[in-house]
From TrEMBL:
This is Xenobiotic compound monooxygenase, DszA family. It comes from the Eukaryota. One of its GO terms (molecular function) is oxidoreductase activity, acting on paired donors, with incorporation or reduction of molecular oxygen. The lineage of its organism: Eukaryota, Fungi, Dikarya, Ascomycota, Pezizomycotina. Residues 42-409 form the Luciferase-like domain. Pfam families: Bac_luciferase. The keyword Lipid biosynthesis does not apply. Belongs to the NtaA/SnaA/DszA monooxygenase family. Keywords: Monooxygenase, Oxidoreductase. The keyword Oxidoreductase applies.
Amino acid sequence: MTESSQDTPTAATPDLGNGKTRILLNAFDMSTLGHLSPGQWKNPVDKSATKRRLEYWIELAKLLERGGINALFLADTYGGYDTYEGSLDNCIRRAAQWPITDPTIPISAMAAVTKNLAFAITASTSFEPPFLLAKRFSTLDHFTRGRIGWNIVTSWKKSAFKAIGLDNPIEHDERYKQADEYLRLLYKLWEGSWADDAVFPDPANDSYIDPSKVRTIRHQGKYFSLDAKHIVDPSPQRTPFLFQAGTSSAGSEFAATHAEAIFVSAHSPSVLRPKIDKIRALAAAQGRDPRSIKVFATFTPIIGRTDEEAQAKHAGLKKYASTIGGLVLFSGWTGIDISKIPLDQEITAADSHEAHKVRSILDSFTTTSKEIPQWTPRVVAEHASIGGLGPVAVGSPQTVADELERWAREADVDGFNLGYVTTPGTFEEVVDLLVPELRRRGLYPELEEVSEEEALTAREKIYGKGQSGLRADHVGSSYKYDVYKEDEPYVKEETKEVVVENGVTSE
């Protein structure tokens, strides 16, 4: 099935805008107690505290597989949130994304009990050599039979940089320049180092791999140097399916170049739509099909069999919410120490005195809309402790499905990263109540029994069967083995000395 055939409207599937006829759903989780709804660990039905046991992840994977969920999208972070009151204490006390374990470790166990569920793992371009990340993701792509995606982030927390021995984070736009080179070096390893037929077992001649078909990558860039062959043979996708988070100016340019899917967050479709339009326009300017970039928005559903039941659930969940935990996350994301602002004073971008923050989230939390006409600490406190970054929809499966359709039309998103309030409770509601309603509307595919060999890769699940590798219009395709050409070494620009003498400037 090609992408165009998937997106062709039929009588049974309504047009959601721009030819979209389906809604893609990812489950959004994090290997920590307090992801986007801190405090729910106190709720007797919540199992967040069991995430340090492998059984949690195995059972979650089985549940998502049963619901035909596209992917399990796993957030990650490398340091605590210390902007609120200038301390980590409340981050730790409220378990606001603390403690947190490595999200890559349980992937193999989850892959072993599923055939269709894909996995998108957050990893940073700021903290490890590209060669090591390339090896890890190639390994995971092999073990999952091509069901791996990478959510590319550039890290910004001072606490995280101090943990690896650096006093301050790299400046925002410079991080994206570094990340661009990082990705191009990875493409060289994943796409350009091994020929498709390099692995050619020949027992008679005691030969398993033809060394003449494994290229040495010699990269000399501004930020990275490497002289090596990729140590892992080509995996089913070679390059993992590429997500990217962040819609700042630099982030949008990066996404338009490298991302196959973008993870966005906003409280209103009207706030989000201009950012998405900009990224698609930037992609088109680079010769990419702008519709090939799939956009996933944060969305937290609270679902009951009726609207009244859902409202009652919501009221019960509020009893366990950690208001301070939510404010800790808000302050960390935006660089605003909200503890210093009067409860009903409007929050503006000028309140952000911390240079290191998530600029797109700051913009989202200081841009008003008809849904939220004014941001104050009181309003933030109400929103941040349940659902965190994005909208919360409370209602029956029909009500929540209506809201998903509205966002798909008005914001031009292709799908959603569905956050939870309690786990696995929210995900059970999605699988047992929401997915059947979306299928009834013709917006979500029915489950099909397939063998492991027939199962689709993460990229095929988005673009259609047969598209396991990068699309031809993606920049990474220019590094494929058969067309590979090494970049010229980076040459540092010499600083010109400027001399002013008798009012005359010379160099």
